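In the design runs reported in the main text, the only information available to the sequence generator was the tokenized backbone. The following block is the verbatim input for one such run; it is reproduced so that readers can re-run the procedure and compare outputs position by position.
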């Protein structure tokens, strides 16, 4: 990684490979851009360049208390979930003017990308093992009282080791919180993939 360089003086919304995030994570390449943040593959220089995924809050949300709260919530809730088919989240960082979370890096792609690259749909025998694993992951979360609320192809990671992993608990809530909000008008999720009760 000879091209790596230190942080520039000004904060950049669009990072570049080699940027040193928080004085610890060299950014390698962008993995995806969401509504709230960018996800980058980083190399942890304190752990022999161990690969890690960094979800960095967009600058437009850097002073948004709700966005920051949701990012912290993702860490607090997901850290309770230790399951081979749920992406592990490590920690929340607020350093050098950037707010981000670090989590397990899963090599491979997500289901939305894989579907867009295929000419034909997956067959039922192909998807049944994945569905079984994902249901096991969601059952584990539900037993901890946590609802994902945004299960969709983009949040299903297809790892290079053949495993599937459920990602992005950014809008997850506890079952008690979700129940208390059912009579309100606010909801969260992706419209095409919402359960009927989220739309009530």
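Verbatim output:
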């Amino acid at each position: 990684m000879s091209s790596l360089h230190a942080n520039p003086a000004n904060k950049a919304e669009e990072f570049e490979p080699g940027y040193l995030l928080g004085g610890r994570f060299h950014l390698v390449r962008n993995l995806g851009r969401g509504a709230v943040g960018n996800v980058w593959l980083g190399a942890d220089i304190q752990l022999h360049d161990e690969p890690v995924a960094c979800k960095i809050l967009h600058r437009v949300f850097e002073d948004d208390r709700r966005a920051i709260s949701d990012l912290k919530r993702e860490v607090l809730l997901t850290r309770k979930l230790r399951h081979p088919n749920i992406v592990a989240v490590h920690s929340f960082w607020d350093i050098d003017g950037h707010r981000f979370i670090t989590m397990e890096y899963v090599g491979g792609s997500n289901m939305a990308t894989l579907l867009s690259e295929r000419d034909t749909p997956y067959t039922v025998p192909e998807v049944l093992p994945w569905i079984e694993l994902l249901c096991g992951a969601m059952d584990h979360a539900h037993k901890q009282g946590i609802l994902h609320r945004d299960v969709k192809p983009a949040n299903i990671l297809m790892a290079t080791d053949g495993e599937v992993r459920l990602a992005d608990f950014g809008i997850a809530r506890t079952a008690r919180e979700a129940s208390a909000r059912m009579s309100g008008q606010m909801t969260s999720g992706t419209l095409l993939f919402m359960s009927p009760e989220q739309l009530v």
